[in-house]
Amino acid sequence: MKLLNLSPMLYTVNLEESVAFYTSKLGFTAGGQSVEDGWASLFKDEVEIMFSLPNAHLPFKEPVFTGSFYFRTDNVDELWNKLRDDVKVVYELENFDYGMREFAIYDNNGYILQFGENIEV
Predict the structure, then answer these.
(1) Is this prediction's pTM over 0.90?
(2) How confident is residue 3, by pLDDT bands cut at 50, 70 and 90?
(3) What is the dihedral of CA 40, 71, 69, 82, to 10 degrees?
(4) What is the DSSP secondary-structure string of 73-121?
């Protein structure tokens, strides 16, 4: 048995706002969406992210996640230049000793999105 991929399912209180953030700012495409059923599936290149309104059987006040989502890219500078003035920044574009050039932003729900590219060290 092997795992084929990972598609995070993130809770949001505003499905349409989440779809708009990921499509307009990050270039994702809506692959499927049902406002009536409270879910959306978004794609960009090899990445899929799904959003869902909170499950009625679980307590939910706001999105809570104790980590971040790390996206590897082939041109982190281009992405940084596109996003930096239009999003809430966690940390600016920087070279790190562990061989990555990266930055981080918050999405519309408060989830942390990191974007990095391998660099020669």
Answers:
(1) no
(2) low
(3) -80
(4) -S-HHHHHHHHTTTSEEEEEEEEETTTEEEEEEE-TTS-EEEEEEE---
List the beta bridge partners of residue 88: 106
| Predicted local confidence at residue 79, as pLDDT | 96
Domains of the chain: 6-55 (3.10.180.10), 64-121 (3.10.180.10)
pLDDT tens, 25-57?
A: 999 999 988 888 899 999 999 999 999 998 878
As beta bridge partners, residue 95 has: 101
Give dist(CA 97, CA 101) in Å, integer: 9
